[in-house]
Amino acid sequence: MKLKLSIFFLVLPFIMLAQHSFVLKGVCFKKANKKKIYLTYKANGKSITKSSEIYNNKFVFKGEIDLPVKAIICTDPRFYMTNLNSKIFYLEPSSMNVKLDIDDLNTIVISGSKTNDEFYALHNTTEKEKIHKKIDSIRELSRFYSVKMAATRDNSLKIQFQKSLDSLDQQLDQLVDQNIKINRQSDFEFIKKNPNSFITPDLLEYILAEEDNQIPYDTIKKLYDKLGPEVQKSYSGNQLAEKLNYFKNSRIGSLAPDFKVNDLNANLLQLSSYKNNKYVLLDFWASWCGPCREDFPFLKEMYSKYKDKGFEIISVTKDEKQDLWRATIQKENIEKWKHFSIKENKSTIENTYAVTGIPVKILINKEGNIIGRWIGSSVEIKAEIENRITEIFHN
């Protein structure tokens, strides 16, 4: 009996290890010998990238993951993704099989992953497929008319082709909006019905970061609280919990998280130094962001009107190239207000203020509380900001 127990405990670590291993076996439809294929995913918060050489039209990936995780398979080593060269799917700690066309990963068929089956079913409903086919058809027609218009010298034909293109653009916009609405609805229904699915935290994180913020933070937090323990412990679950905390601390009504950085001129810049003194507008931008730069004339107007009444702007750049950032500030003539670089300061401000895209503008009152938050750039958004600031300084 002791011998059997000894053997059991010797074997147990290997059994536990096997439970956390994945094997992804692939077969190519076409000849692809000596070509390479690549896989990337995250395990314990670390990004892992693997490559496999295709031999006899077969390849294998092996690794260790505790729980199902989102992954990308790609034929480009740099992971410059297109519809043809890459596919997002879910790895499972199990044995999985893949069949694919090396020239078109859209044809990929993956078996052996329950989570990926759920992912595929969610994104490939009959209703969604119909819309995708309509969108593809309209894009193909648009290409056809564009070629025809470029080839003709007949102005009357050019006008007809342009009218057809305008009509197709309008149809495409409507279909894209319809597709977004259907996706949001199906994602939300899936989340409510499947709290134990490892897809659910990824869907919740996407909804949390949506630009229109149609679903309130409190609703998402309640759905997160209903997730199964294993799902909450997963990498995606932990990421969602972290982002929920950031959103909680950076939403309207919250005390604005403090930060201490060096500004454009290497002077100390601390948000809390403006408390009880000035209203502050945080402007998240980058030199390569067209909509961000389109807002500068408006910001200059607001700053000119209200800087002497207790209004300050702090522009926060995502620029990687500091020379471009500095040159843009000079070119746009916006040196008058405060600027700092996330990269230069190794700042985590994007996380603490839950900024997932740019432009983002956040208005902070003299008490240090967030009283406005705007994502994106539009005439309507600028009007809202102007009305809010005007109301503050004219009362």
UniProtKB/TrEMBL annotation:
Name of this protein: AhpC/TSA family protein
Coiled coil: 158-185
Keywords of the record: Coiled coil, Cytochrome c-type biogenesis, Disulfide bond, Redox-active center
Superkingdom of source: Bacteria
Ranges where the Thioredoxin domain occurs: 250-394
Protein's cellular compartments: Cell envelope
Gene3D superfamilies noted in UniProt: Glutaredoxin
Protein species of origin: Flavobacterium lipolyticum
PANTHER family to which the protein is assigned, alphabetical: THIOL:DISULFIDE INTERCHANGE PROTEIN DSBE
